[in-house]
Specification:
By secondary structure, the protein is an alpha/beta fold. The protein has a single domain, classed as Rossmann fold (3-Layer(aba) Sandwich), CATH 3.40.50.720. It is built from 9 helices and 7 strands, in the order αβαβαβαβαβαβαααβ. It has a 7-stranded parallel sheet with strand order 3-2-1-4-5-6-7, with helices on both faces.
């Protein structure tokens, strides 16, 4: 990353959910390296504190906040703590997500709600809490981690596909709502990346081989690619991009 890139988010405060591992961690560290102060959010406090240390080593002001984004009382407590610590939030990255893979007839209502509440209700609660602190500044960035399953689907993913398709609709509507504030709202739809969420596939040799054969570029994605895209979307250079979803999937959805 060049010196200019390292400074492109200087003075900004970024809040990242699901920041303790995987794509959330990669994006959080990239935003920190680009000069943003970072508020790191996850249910996994121990892992989150390690990420906070890594962000600090990059020269960023960083703090960890253990939070379940699906719980209204947790998000309200988070709002107060973050504003007290940082004074404002300029960038909100809704990345926290869960997936349960099973046939619809085997889902319990509780399992279904747990996926919808984290993946769709969570971003609503976060935006409801923090958008008021983003307005009136002429700049703001909201990025929702959508998914290729906002566009296509596979068997045994009904709850996840429903939540991510809903998140894409939410992203588009909110972008229109906040456009006059200079706040852009976009989705990033990652394809297949080696994270904890996809471990059941990449750790299974047969399933892994089958999947990779269906990706036109013939490989899993690198989390750094998603991180670089997030930094760009948060920059001034991306100020005319809003209400859209960017697929980063090795060509998977193009088929």
């Amino acid at each position: 990353m060049s010196t200019d890139d390292q400074k492109r988010l200087s003075g900004k405060v970024a809040l990242i959910t699901g920041a303790s591992r995987g794509l959330g961690k990669a994006m959080a560290l990239a935003l920190a390296e680009a000069g943003a102060s970072v508020a790191l959010v996850s249910r996994d406090e121990e892992s989150l504190r390690e990420v906070s240390k890594e962000a600090g080593a990059l020269g960023a002001t960083s703090e960890a906040f253990q939070t379940d984004v699906s719980r209204e009382e947790d998000v309200e407590r988070l709002r107060k703590a973050v504003i007290n610590r940082f004074g404002e939030v300029n960038i909100l990255l809704n990345n926290a997500g869960v997936n349960i893979r099973k046939p619809i007839t085997e889902f319990t209502p509780g399992e279904w709600r747990s996926v919808i509440n984290t993946n769709l209700v969570g971003p609503f609660l976060m935006c409801h809490a923090f958008v008021p602190h983003m307005k009136g500044r002429g700049y703001g960035r909201i990025i929702n981690t959508t998914s290729t399953m906002s566009h296509v689907a596979t068997a045994n993913r009904t709850a996840y596909a429903a939540s991510k398709a809903g998140l894409l609709g939410f992203t588009k509507a909110l972008a229109i709502e906040l456009a006059t504030e200079g706040i852009t709202v976009n989705g990033i739809s990652p394809g297949w990346f080696e994270t904890e969420l996809t471990k059941p596939i990449w750790s299974n040799p047969e399933a892994n081989e089958s999947l990779v054969s269906r990706i036109p570029l013939g490989r899993w994605g690198d989390a750094k690619d998603v991180a670089k895209l997030a930094v760009y979307l948060c920059s001034n250079e991306a100020g005319y991009i809003t209400g859209t979803d960017i697929l980063i999937d090795g060509g998977y959805v193009a088929q």
